[in-house]
Design a protein that fits this description.
This protein is α+β, with helices and mostly antiparallel strands and about 425 residues long. It is built from twelve helices and five strands. The protein has a five-stranded mixed beta sheet with strand order 1-2-3-5-4, covered by helices on one side. The protein starts with 9 loop residues before the first helix and ends in a 7-residue tail after the last helix.
């Protein structure tokens, strides 16, 4: 029972297939010749035993040998091709023992079956461990020599009677070992190919999961820095409008409702842009400096709608350089997140946004004179809060880190806060298509 050709090189697979087919054809031809000689020979079996009805017994045994051999090869072929779930390999030794035993019985009846030993040698070398296979081949060769000697009727075996089976056995062993070496090499290549496919599949799965995680992180940052901040402002301004309505101040209520509409429209534009993976709509309409200037004005307006007297101003230092879109978006988001924290938590009266171009780097500093906080405290924005808020600094740190920049937060209770972003203006960074700054 030879295993099917493993997945190897085309030339190696062709050689293995040729040897397999040659072996099966050779076995069938030698068996057929032996049976024909039984029926159309000289009328006696080797050793002078009468043939007569016995030749039909040997023919039946030959048919049984053919059936056993064919059953084993067919079962193995179907399993190798995936057309059968039955694995015959654990029963290979038992199958080989049955085939060899039937051959031995036939050999005892006629020396014409001795030539079947040579294809059987290949099976022994393939199925059995090498030492055991060499031992069984030696015993079978001795049986062939004995059968040939008895058939010759000579008082002692002659040189051709001994030398022929020995040379045949030696040739079969060398060829069988070569086949086995080629088969093992092909099997090794098949296992390596399987491992490579598994590795590729695992790598593809890991890359897919990494891509999903990266996209989830991107959406989380965009939602926090745009939609969440905008919705929070809408809620606060809507509450202020409700208070104005309760107080009968319709003009103020109308202004605040108009601000709600404006903020909602801006949020809708931001949502559409980050779903499409585009830059911020503000940066499409104006430069980074102009967007930061406008953001300061919007911050004052939103704070005033809540009744807070926050004043926010923008300062530009140095000559603006053309920045890649990702740089501009990161700096704008940093300012948005920082000013949102100022409005909601700092209780500040003044906030200052400074954009500076300092030769080999661009910096953004957001300062406020509010209550400050302890950067290492829980819920400070670095680790987040249990309700899902406080994601700002962690999100901002991830954005800045992707551009090889740095983020520093200087704060203390009662002493205000400074958020400082530094991005390097390297040649590689500036080689991407930029935008006006």
């Amino acid at each position: 029972m030879l295993a099917a050709d493993p997945q190897t090189t085309p030339s190696g697979a062709a050689i293995l297939r040729f040897l397999r087919v040659t072996l099966h054809i050779g076995f069938a031809v030698l068996l057929l010749v032996a049976v024909l000689r039984l029926h159309w020979g000289d009328g006696t079996a080797d050793g002078g035993a009468p043939v007569g009805a016995q030749r039909y017994v040997w023919s039946a045994l030959a048919l049984a040998l053919a059936g056993a051999y064919l059953a084993g090869t067919v079962l193995e072929k179907r399993y190798a091709a995936g057309r059968s779930g039955f694995n015959p390999h654990p029963y290979a030794v038992l199958w080989l023992a049955l085939v060899t035993a039937l051959w031995a019985v036939l050999l005892a009846g006629s020396s014409d079956f001795s030539w079947l030993a040579f294809p059987l040698f290949f099976l022994h070398l393939h199925v059995l461990p090498r030492r055991i296979a060499l031992l069984t081949i030696t015993v079978m060769t001795a049986a062939v020599i004995a059968s040939q000697w008895l058939a010759s009727g000579l008082p002692a075996p002659t040189l051709p009677v001994v030398l022929g089976p020995l040379l045949g056995a030696g040739f079969a062993v060398v060829t069988g070992l070569g086949y086995r070496a080629l088969f093992l090499e092909g099997e090794s290549q098949r296992l390596a190919a399987d491992e490579l496919r598994r590795t590729r599949a695992e790598l593809a799965r890991t890359q897919h999961e990494a891509g999903v995680a990266a996209e989830r992180e991107r959406l989380a940052r965009e939602i926090h820095d745009t939609l969440a901040q905008g919705l929070s402002s809408i809620v606060l301004v809507a509450r202020a409008a409700e208070k104005s309505l309760s107080a009968g101040d319709l003009a103020t209520a109308a202004e605040r409702l108009a601000l709600v509409q404006q903020t909602a429209s801006g949020n809708l534009a931001e949502a559409r842009s980050f779903v499409r993976g585009l830059t911020s709509p503000q940066l499409q309409e104006s430069s980074l400096a102009e967007s930061l200037q406008r953001l300061c004005g919007e911050t004052e307006t939103l704070a005033a709608a809540r009744g807070d007297g926050l004043r926010c101003r923008f300062e530009l230092v140095g000559d603006p350089a053309e920045l890649p879109p990702q740089y501009s978006v990161t700096l704008l988001r940093a300012a948005q997140a920082s000013l949102a924290n100022v409005r909601q938590h700092a209780k500040a009266s003044t906030a200052v946004v400074t954009l500076a171009f300092l030769g080999d780097e661009v910096t953004l500093d957001v300062y406020d004179d509010g209550t400050g906080f302890s950067p290492g405290a829980a819920g400070s924005g670095v680790a987040g809060r249990p309700d899902g808020s406080g994601f700002g600094l962690r999100s901002l740190a991830a954005r800045v880190g992707e551009l090889d920049g740095s983020l520093e937060v200087e704060a203390a209770p009662g002493e205000g806060t400074v958020v400082a972003v530094r991005l390097p203006l390297t040649g590689d960074a500036l080689s991407a298509p930029g935008e006006r700054s």
